[in-house]
Amino acid sequence: METLIVKIKNKDKVAFTKELLSSFSFLEIEGEKKKLGITAKRKQALVQGFKELKLVEEGKLKGTPATDLLQKLRNGKSCYYSPSSI
């Protein structure tokens, strides 16, 4: 059996394309695979994290040792902090 991957650019045509392809008895259609995207909020959090890392490396911001973060996790406390809380 051969495998063919079809990428549909226009989201409005997905249902039509699936219906069309399923009408052919010689085709087997597997479930669609969705792209794993990153939300704008997560992207902003990553960007902010890298900015803070750079500031820590430059000595302009005090970092938190990994052992402290691990201890907080063991105690069930939140590890998130904002630069304003330092």
Describe this structure in words.
The chain has helices at residues 14-22, 40-57, 66-74. With 86 residues, it is mainly alpha-helical. The protein has a domain at 40-76. The longest helix is centred in the middle third of the chain and has 18 residues, at 40-57. The chain starts with 13 loop residues before the first helix and ends in a 12-residue tail after the last helix. The mean pLDDT is 83.
Principal-axes geometry comes out as elongated
Low-confidence residue ranges: none
Between the first and last Cα atoms, what is the distance in angstroms? 60 Å
Average pLDDT: 83
What is the structural class? mainly alpha
Characterize the largest beta sheet: strand count, sense, and whether it forms a barrel. Answer: none
What pattern of helices and strands is seen along the backbone?
A: HHH
Binned strand content: under 5%
Question: Outline of this structure?
Answer:
With 86 residues, the chain is mostly helical. It is built from three helices and no strands. The protein has a domain at 40-76.
Write the layout of secondary structure elements.
Elements: H1 14-22, H2 40-57, H3 66-74
Question: What distinguishing features does this structure have?
Answer:
single chain; 86 residues; mainly alpha; 42% helix; 0% strand
